[in-house]
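Please, structure for the following, as tokens.
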Amino acid sequence: MRLTDLDLTEDQAAELGEALRGSLPEVTAEAVREIENQIPTLVRPHDPRYAAFLAQAVQWGIGRFIELLAGGDAHLEELHDFYRDLGELLAEEGVAQDDWQATFRISTGVAINRLTEAVGSHPGVTPTAIARVAQDVLYYLEQITGAMTEGYAGARVGDTLHHRRKLLDLLIGEGPRPEDIHQVAAEAGWPVPRTIAVVALRRRTDIVKLRPALPADALPGLHLPDPCIVIPDPAGPGRRHGLATELRDWTAAVGPTVGITDAARSLRWARRALDLSAEGLLGGDRLFHTDDHTLPIVLLHGGEMMEHLVDTLLSPVDALRTTTRDALLETLLRCLQCGFNASDVAARLRLHPQSIRYRIRQLEEVFGPAIRDPERNFEYQAALTYRLRTRPRTNPEDPPQGDIET
């Protein structure tokens, strides 16, 4: 049915169509509030994009109906594909079928109430016409739930998803037995590799996608409050490059490579790295490999003792002005790494060797002979690494240039 079927003039139908379009944000917001109040299992505070998915699903459903009613193009084929994909996503994330079906019963009720109110408020619209609008809303939303049911059922064909989720839960638990892993892996149709790694995931806030990319051979754990995946043979040829492409829709941290019974440890370190990346302490990459950041991760998770070590070893520079202090600390770290070879340090910092020699003399004046003690080299490197990570330079993008003054 179209608005032009309600015995309205073209101008009246156009006016009512614009009024319905204008009511869409308010109707959507009301429907989402009702869904969140009545079905708390769909509220996921740890994943703000989940609320965006819910709002988008409701808005698309009601909005496309309004377009049909107003005589526009509702892109029904695109709408069917969207809701079929949404059904698959909900199945993969472990949302019960009764829960998501209830969301559409709730949104249908809100849509019928608000749309029939809007149509009924227009002069010349009869009660019979209002009832027809309500019937059409019900029929239209039945088509949506049908598409979602199709996607939901397709994702569960042969219980493969169930078995793979069961396998992931087993792997990341504490102390799984190899024989249990092999049994569940056989049920899931997943060849057991020699090694695995667990990848901790966070959805990127700058990408709105119902189905973010994942490696085809991964065990998905999107149903968990903190999503993750298990990948086989993480050190295999091309795997690192492939992950950079496959996980492009996520912020992700790849845990250390472990045997099949030690996934819990890989996941712990991956989640620690992901937390540190969220704090901006591991750089600006979207994909982190814990093996590339082992020392910083270890140091940053020992924060209280590391602060004590920093205060103990590096306090002599506290009296210096900020630019001098930052440059000296970075120079000292490079000196410790390069055995105080001025030429090597100069190459790393893109400075003249004579400038480095001048800084080394300053360092020796400030710290004394302790900085050249091989027994303390690691302590100084650890303290410097921690301090330079947690208290960044005034202009961290600019390397120190030229001589400095105390």
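Strands lie at 195-203, 219-221, 228-232, 250-254, 258-259, 287-289. Residues 10-38 form the longest helix (29 residues).
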